[in-house]
Amino acid sequence: MIKIGISACFMYPNLERDYFGPKTLSYIENEMMNYLTRKGILPVLIPDVKEEYLKDILDEMDGFVFQGGADLAPITYGEESIGKWKGDAYRDQYELKILDYAIKNSKPVLGICRGLQLMNVYFGGTLYQDTQTQNTAANNHRSAALYDTIKHKIIFTKGKLLAELYREENDPHVNTVHHQAVKQLGKNLEVYATSPDGLIEAFGYCKEPEGKVMGVQWHPEFSSTLKGELIDADKLYDKFLSHIN
User: Which domains does the chain have, with CATH numbers?
Assistant: First the structure.
């Protein structure tokens, strides 16, 4: 059984909740679980535990997926918050420990939305805290009301992995559910795709085979919402799985 470790999203204590009000919850969004689960493949939530236990858990994983969710905290990439975008510094540190393990142990990694942003920061890059505020050339890439029902065209970098993977796509589109984006690209990352307004939509770590350590800004797990209108999400996951020994 192949085990895919998934970093957790967190819900922090909130006494207005009817259940577990004073407690912190760790969770995985359900469409993500369905996207990653296949015969012989078990997605596993990586618990937020003491470091003395964490390595033994990570040693059991064959690959790692970093899911979307809360913003990264600006302090994590050396900036002060410009407004309401405070982010989740606690989750940042939890995930960076996992990502550091994955990179140093040459494990396959797929970062999705926030996961791509986390990878960029890990490799020394920075983010737009809010693209509409800090990059006037950028289109609006997120609508809370429309959520995963909006899309945009994607431009694949010629000669790179995604251009080959989706070579039969005549009019490739992806969904868009983010308001933060890569600003300065991290070290040893190469761009696989951009949006029409120039934002980085996918990249890979150039010190590993193409696709072994990769981030995408869209949500492949949400592709069924716009079925038939977006690039094939399974091809992306297939490529990730191909790097698992």
Answer: 2-242 (3.40.50.880)
